[in-house]
Amino acid sequence: MSTVLTHVTDELQSIFDRARSVAVLTGAGISAESGVPTFRGGGDSEIWTWRGRPVTELSSAELIATDPQLVWEWFDYRRGMLTSVEPNAGHRALAEWERRFEDFTLVTQNIDDLHRAAGSLNVLELHGNIWRARCLRCASTFEARESPLEENPPRCLACNGPARPDVVLFGELLPDGVFERAEEAAARADLFFVIGTSAVVYPAAGLPITAKRRGARIIEVNPEMTDISFIADVTLLGKAGELLPQFLKERG
Ligand code: BV8
Ligand code: ZN
Question: What's the topology of domain 45-84+133-167?
Answer without folding.
Answer: SIR2/SIRT2 'Small Domain' (3.30.1600)
